[in-house]
Specification:
230 residues, Rossmann fold, three-stranded antiparallel sheet, disordered C terminus
Length: 230
């Protein structure tokens, strides 16, 4: 079953900043340039908007939509979700055996538990954050540019990890400016601009025959090779 986000609308005074609907089943990639409304969409779903903004939305999901429980957010910068003064093990609310099991799932060794966040690489931190997210047994993961600060090897590893999580039945909304990243994980893509959807559909269709000029520009800026073109 899919998660249906209907009539998601954010306004500031008389200005509409966001107005869209989403259907999330498996993994949906949301792509857009800086300022297009990607982060605003995540904040609206998490109900983390400033009080000056007005939010309306309808959510139809096969589970109760609870932030931090059934719906878990993984930020662009894992340091923002971790205490720099505590070792990784202390940042889990689980028994050590369960934590070790979670680390194995995300491909991180047990030794990482005795390290402070500053002692881990960006890819290792992203894996640790993902393990913490999986500890909640979420139904939906919200990803905000999770590969932006990673080198190519770490990026490939993290994308493979999210693909494996998707295959285990966890739905994913993958928000990024990077078409190549979302295309590695998501079967369906949505392109937004100025808070509205300008194009959506199957990954292969959008990448091989984009209709909107903004979509074309984003694709050209993200792929050095034309491997997605037919």
């Amino acid at each position: 079953m899919s998660v249906e986000i209907k009539k998601l609308k954010v306004s500031l005074r008389e200005e509409t900043l966001l107005d869209l609907s989403l259907s999330i089943s498996g993994a949906l990639g949301m792509v857009g340039a800086s300022g297009s409304g990607k982060s605003l969409t995540l904040k609206a779903l998490l109900n983390l908007l400033p009080t000056s903004m007005t939010l309306t939305r309808e959510i139809d999901a096969p589970f109760e939509f609870r932030r931090g429980e059934t719906v878990v957010f993984i930020p662009q910068n894992p340091f923002t979700a971790l205490s720099p003064m505590s070792k990784i093990e202390a940042q889990f609310n689980e028994e050590r055996a369960r934590v070790v099991e979670l680390l194995e799932i995300v491909g991180l060794a047990e030794w990482a538990l005795g390290r402070f966040p500053s002692e881990l690489s960006g890819g290792q931190l992203q894996r640790a954050i993902t393990a913490m997210a999986l500890a909640q047994e979420p139904k939906l993961l919200l990803l905000d540019e999770p590969t932006t600060a990673l080198d190519q090897e770490s990026k490939r590893g993290i994308l493979d990890l999210f693909g494996a999580i998707r295959d285990k039945g966890v739905d994913i909304l993958f928000v990024s400016h990077d078409f190549s990243a979302v295309a590695a994980v998501c079967d369906n893509l949505t392109v937004i601009d100025r808070g509205k959807i300008i194009e959506s559909g199957a990954r292969e269709k959008i990448l091989s025959a984009p209709k909107h000029d903004q979509t074309k520009a984003l694709i050209e800026s993200n792929f050095e090779k034309r491997e997605w073109r037919i």
